[in-house]
Specification:
427 residues; alpha/beta; eight-stranded mixed beta sheet; TIM Barrel; globular
Length: 427
Amino acid sequence: MTKNIAIRNGRVIDPANDLDKVTDLFISEGKIAAIGQAPEGFTVDREIDATNLIVSPGLIDLCAHLREPGYTRKGSIASETAAAAAGGVTTLCMPPITKPIADNSAVIDLIEDRAKQAGNARVLPMGALTQGLKGEQLSPMYALSKAGCIGFTNVREPIRSSLTLVRCLEYAATHDLLVIFQPQDAELADGGTMHDDTTCTRLGLSGIPESAETIEVARCLLLIEQTGVKAHFGQLSCERSVKMVMDARTRGLRVTADIAIQNLLLTDENVSGFDPNFHLIPPLRSQLDRAGLRHALLADGFQAICSDHQPHELAAKQAPFAATEPGMTGLETLLPLSLMLVQQELISLPQMIEKLTSGPASVLGTGLGTLGTGRSADICIFDPEQEWTLTEENHRSAGSNTPFLNFPLKGQVCFTLLEGNVVFQLA
């Protein structure tokens, strides 16, 4: 570990502290020591020239599947956290879809041990809301939170009994635990592979209607209000969903939401070529929905933008569209794709950084996502103007299932620091 690092002449953007200026940043013992002037007696062990570069807190991704344990043919904690580091992501939340399911402390311990061994990024496991994600019995949430779980989710596995869901929420509320919903009505979505609209009909594919999401959002909000639990809605895809969450927040409910970057950029029309890399759950919605989601982003309807990173092996995507497994990789492209929103003048650069740093940190209730003095030196240094291409040769994720492979991108990470250690440096 390099003890003292000076990052010189970078444009330091720290939305949590309303900071945006060209200055120097100093790191000591893995913490932010000072910004502007070096602390008294500070000796530099390593200097990083950040001239014309952006220096921001390390990115925080609220949903990234790392595939280990159980699905290592798709990826591993080592490979996917290496991809995270290359994308400037220093902290990521890992859903409990593992084998075995993350519903006991032994699995959580394994995940944390593997993440520590890899040393590329901080992994915050989500615990299963119900045992085995079967939607029937409560998991030992309190014990799992003590083992390191940041929150609890049933992912998109159904909890058909509202009474069971109420019991889960009541228990979580008792211990002030965060519950994360990825809302989808299993029956309405059953067999669907894309947004249910004219493109879907023309292609002859089975659709997933907006109501598959909005009905579940409505049910969850009513039960959140009843129990008073702290809740987060992950990867919303419909304008109406986020409007309901925003309305609930104005009524005093402790609810937040995030959106996957692809749902802000793409629509169901991208599926026209049957490219399985556009097979996503939640699906890409209509242009009208995308416009509504973008408007919600401006209105602070979303506290965070995430990657919803889901690496797959080659065989999982080598089949007719409907027979492929849904999901795309996104850790290495989260930053450049988010920068597209800045390039399109939808949001400013500090606003974008806020949705990738202090915004998700506030959802999790951690002290991360800031460059405040004394905080962990998790830092992303990137060139917003640098053009590059993600290819089969240079990608670090075990999966290459992304429609943005061989696509020109703008905005490249130059350095990533985790607790003061350089975990990625552009060659």
